[in-house]
Amino acid sequence: MPLLADLMGASRSRFAESFTRTMGESPARYVAKVKMSQARSWIARDGMRVAVAAHRLGYESEASFSRAYKRVIGQPPSTARAQ
């Protein structure tokens, strides 16, 4: 986010305010949704293991990834594989 704020020529807080006003959600929430949507695709379409998706997205543990995934998507990552 600091790089995007610099490109915009604004402070991080001003960037976050503008982003939220334009997109309807905070930059952090938006990035989390994009990451978890990608993970859902990897798991459902490609059959990727949850641990591999977690590692690719930079999570230190499968458990922390699963909690974040459920918070963002509303279901545990195992449901993506079943669909």
Provide a concise account of the structure shown.
This protein is an all-alpha fold. The chain has helices spanning 2-8, 12-23, 27-46, 50-56, 62-73, 78-82.
Descriptive keywords:
6 helices; mainly alpha; 83 residues
Number of β-strand runs: 0
Shape: elongated
| Total number of helices | 6
Order of helices and strands: HHHHHH
Description:
The chain is 76% helix and 0% strand. It has 83 residues and is mainly α. Helix 3 crosses helix 5. It is elongated.
Task: Give the arrangement of secondary structure elements.
Blueprint: H1 2-8, H2 12-23, H3 27-46, H4 50-56, H5 62-73, H6 78-82
Helix pairs in contact: 1-2, 3-5, 4-5
